[in-house]
Amino acid sequence: MTIMMVVLLTFITSASAVGYEPVPVDKETVTAYISKLEHKDGQLFIQADDIQWYEGEAANKIFLEREQDIGDLEGPPDGYYIVNDNEDLTTYKVSDNLEVLMQIYDRDGTYEGMDINWNEPISLDKFQEVFANTEMMDLSQFPYHLTIQDGVVIRIVQQFIP
């Protein structure tokens, strides 16, 4: 849990450096790839593959520890590094009052409509719609920061990846 806090604090710090205001995260936040949204008995659930997300010096350190044959690289090429040692899925219950913040998604079925808009709030219904539509962009390929309170996901923040 301590490592996750360091990673999340790194996210907050480095995000400010790129020119947008990051969303505050807390100790109940996990980072994951969302593989499936599923309704059961009138309740929405997320199936997700929890990962470890690293940026900055933390990313450089874990990259150098784990990668072989990297040539002259001193860190990950894009400044972040993902560790996914366990691909088991975790099922999370979703709050009816879920807050969803997106960075990039298919807004209107055009490439022009997929521009970056940092921490853009969208409704849960809209999130389900765009997540299911993989024609122009597959949102399951992005990591998400899931804020969990009392065992229920109350916030989803899409992590932009270059």
From TrEMBL:
Keywords: Signal. Residues 1-17 form the signal peptide. It comes from the Bacteria. This is Uncharacterized protein. The lineage of its organism: Bacteria, Bacillati, Bacillota, Bacilli, Bacillales.
